[in-house]
Each structure stands twice: as C-alpha cells, then as structure tokens.
Amino acid sequence: MIKSFVISAAATAVALAPASALASPYINVENNGSYVDGFQGSSTDIHIGYEGGEGAYGFYVQGGFALVDDTTDVNTELSGKVGGSVSVANSGLSLYGELSGITTANDPVFGTKMGAKYNF
C-alpha cells in the first residue's frame, strides 16, 4: 500500500506541476532516533526524491527504503514523504506540511508534520 502511495504521490506531483516548476532530483539520507531512558531505536531513510516549485510555492516527493533498528533487529521497510511549503506575502514567513508513511510487519504507519518558519 505504501509503495502505491509513493508512486501515486510522485505521479500526481509531476502531472500537476508545470514543466518550469520541476526543479531537480535529489538523494536524502536521514536518521531519526528515539531515546527514553536510553536508546529505544532508530529509522534511517534512504530516499530518492524530486523537489520543485514556482514563486511562493514549493513541493517535494521522495521515497525509498528505511532501515529500522528496534534494538534487537534491523528491518528494511518501504517509506516515503510528500510535502510542500508556501511563502506568506513577502513577510519572511512560510508555512509547510508533510505527510509520511512507512510499512511495518502489521500495517503501514503514517505521520504528519506541520510548521511555520520565519526568515529575518
């Protein structure tokens, strides 16, 4: 299911974006660890992605593998992210959001990220 989600998100982003808005492919390697009274585990994403945008709007879509270390085993899962940002009227403020997903032994797990960034 997550594989079809990543493929659908990539196809949608490419189809909806004007040719001039397609910027570039990239490789992203990111590790997220969890520590509560010691090491609880980590996930290392190894993704290929595309980012682009035009004017005040930006987007990215990326997918690949995640190496999940739960302190007893390291499992390989499929994972992906799609996100975007919009600048607010030349104010230095931008808003962003992300939807991520990863396969697991039982069901896929989804996450969200939202925020605001102000540049001085």
List keywords for this structure.
elongated; single chain; mainly beta; 120 residues; 12% helix
Describe this structure in words.
The protein has a six-stranded antiparallel β-sheet. It is mostly beta strands and 120 residues long. The mean pLDDT is 86. Strand 2 and strand 3 form a beta hairpin. 18% of the residues are buried. The protein has one helix and six strands. Helix content is 12%, strand content 65%. The protein has one helix at residues 2-16, and strands spanning 22-35, 39-54, 57-69, 74-88, 93-102, 109-118. The chain is elongated. It has one domain (2-118).
Could you provide a short overview of the structure?
This protein has one domain (2-118). It has one helix spanning 2-16; strands at residues 22-35, 39-54, 57-69, 74-88, 93-102, 109-118.
Strand order of the largest sheet: 1-2-3-4-5-6
Number of helices: 1
Q: Specify the structural class.
A: mainly beta
SSE string: HEEEEEE
Number of domains: 1
- Describe the biggest sheet? 6 strands, antiparallel
Fraction of helical residues? 10-25%
Shape: elongated
What is the element layout, followed by pairings?
Layout: H1 2-16, E1 22-35, E2 39-54, E3 57-69, E4 74-88, E5 93-102, E6 109-118
Antiparallel strand pairs: 1-2, 2-3, 3-4, 4-5, 5-6
